[in-house]
Design brief:
The protein is of the alpha+beta class. The protein contains two helices and twelve strands.
Length: 202
């Protein structure tokens, strides 16, 4: 019975309200906006020859590279923006990110949130964090979300000089609700109470 209680608590610790694995970026509902100067390629479907996805099919991730700036020269500001999400109490966003296993480049992704439906990049004024991408493989990152009924997550591949950039990849995005500690403890007591009643009935 204690095993059941532990499993129930583990399930309650995190409830995903939205997930995206980028099996098909074009059909995912995400908005691609390239504000690079000069603008080149938008985010594109993952390329298995670069490396395999964190999960799912080998090319099921979103990617952007130094050609975000035309001809690989200029500054990069390439945006990947989620659909409007109904958050339902969600308070964290997590994702996996990486670059290629090639040293000597500087690839960073900024993570933003915007409450509501606006998709304009200028509306993403809430910076959740900045990630310097690892060359050693997929790494998971988690950021707290502001309180809002709906909103959009945005990833900006941001490199001031495209000559120092290589590639950015995003996979396995999840928006989750984690119970407050007090609620978590009360639920645990409830499950243990059920276990006690079961023993009494036996």
């Amino acid at each position: 019975m204690l095993g059941l209680a532990g499993a129930t608590l583990a399930l309650a610790a995190q409830a995903d309200t939205y997930t995206e694995g980028f099996d098909n970026l074009a059909a995912s509902g995400w908005t691609l906006t390239n504000n690079s100067s000069p603008a080149g390629q938008a985010w594109f479907q993952g390329v298995p020859e670069y490396f395999a996805a964190q999960s799912g099919g080998s090319g099921s991730y979103a990617a952007a590279n130094f050609l975000s700036a035309a001809a690989g020269a200029g500054s990069i500001s390439n945006w990947l923006i989620s659909p409007e999400l109904t958050l339902g109490g969600a308070n964290t966003v997590s994702f996996f990110a990486r670059t290629e296993a090639v040293e000597g480049f500087s690839d960073t992704v900024k993570v933003y949130f915007n409450a509501g439906a606006d998709v304009a990049t200028s509306s993403f004024t809430s910076l959740l964090g900045t990630v310097t991408l690892s060359t050693s493989g997929w790494t998971q990152y988690t950021f707290a979300l502001p309180s809002a009924a709906t909103g959009r997550i945005a990833f900006e591949y941001a490199v001031s000089d495209a000559a120092t950039a290589n590639l950015a990849a995003i996979d396995s995005v999840s928006v989750s609700a984690v119970p407050e500690p007090a609620s978590f403890a009360l639920m645990g007591l409830g499950v243990l109470g059920l276990a006690f009643l079961r023993r009494r009935q036996d």
